[in-house]
Amino acid sequence: MKTVLIVGAGGVGSVVAHKFAAKLGNSGRIVLASRTLGKCEAIAKSVRERTGVEIGTAELDAEEVPRTVELLERERPGVLVNVALPYQDLVLMDACLEAGVDYLDTANYEPRNEAKFEYKWQWGYEERFAAAGRMALLGSGFDPGVTNVFTAYAAKHHFDEIHELDIVDVNGGDHGQAFATNFNPEINIREVTAPCRHWEDGRFVETAALSEHRRFTCPEEVGTYSIYRMYHEELESLTKHIPTLRRASFWMSFSDNYLKHLEVLQNTGLTSIEPVEYEGKSIIPLQFLKAVLPDPGGLGKTTTGRTCIGCIVRGVRDGEPKTVYIYNICDHARCFEEVGSQAVSYTTGVPAMIGASLMLDGTWRRPGVWNMEQFDPDPFMEALNRDGLPWTLVEGDPLA
Ligand code: NDP
Asked: Are 127 and 153 members of one domain?
């Protein structure tokens, strides 16, 4: 019997639990562990009501490695799916190594005290995972995750060589709130306010955060949106593993309303991660802000509209220039109907479930530390169509 341990009972963790329950039914065991047991129990109740499957729950602070090792030794899962926060990546990798369990996550490690995410820390585990015969799959969400697989699929089937990549992430949804983030507010705001980096002629070029923008018309009448160039972690692994890439950029849509609120929050110092003294206590302004903002996991009920995330890949085929665009469109309300979450959690949780399933059944299993584009994209692409995130590939350049 396959056992999966999911760590993190947030918006994404809830989707992973629901999708795994739907997939495994009663032929597998799913355990959901998080800092707050009540959140695990609420998700377990929803899973039971929607799928009839009973999942296990556990209270766990993942920062305490011996506690995680204990839980892993008790449950003996085939894989640990880390959908807690990026701060927990290394401690969970340590626990997996100690207990001899495979590992998967959806966001790369960043230290709490510096808003700078890089793969160097997790790539540093390569030798230890390989020597132990264990596997770590990094970034199995949508972006990173599906965007890496889309790029690998284009390179495999549509080009002799790829030269340029634009990843475009549009959220055409409306949650009905004055200001809210699509996923964990602390992680989201750290990412959006960081300086932008894009790949050009073999190196990263740094520019001011959100200083470059375009208008982008999504297919299938999702709408036209302002997209802003920003740094995103898959640029680091894709430019390493696909060395023919000459240019690579990541773009995300933001509404004028989101940017207006963000600017005010930044100007007042509320997005800072520098500790301040407040009534004799040291607090981090951004963590306080997270506490007063809406919980993205609870926005599903009121969110309407669609997301449209995809990759525009340019290169050559048979000596001729060629461009393809591969995308997925996901409807917030339909996701809520299926699993009780909005599309941003859904588009992250489904690929986490697919990546973990491919590890469990051996299709994508190799000892070591890997990024998504290093595996054959075909089984993952097939699973996306089957498991709720169908994709479309068209020729032509929607950014031209
Ligand atoms: P949430 O904040 O909703 O959920 C995170 C959960 O992790 C919370 O339930 C929290 O528990 C739990 N947690 C935090 N610290 C610990 C700890 N020390 N031990 C155990 N559990 C802990 O975040 P999301 O669900 O929105 O995001 C989850 C992850 O997915 C993040 O890493 C995010 O960066 C990533 N992500 C990736 C995307 C992609 O496409 N690749 C897109 C969106 C998100 P508690 O509530 O009890 O504190």
From this structure: no
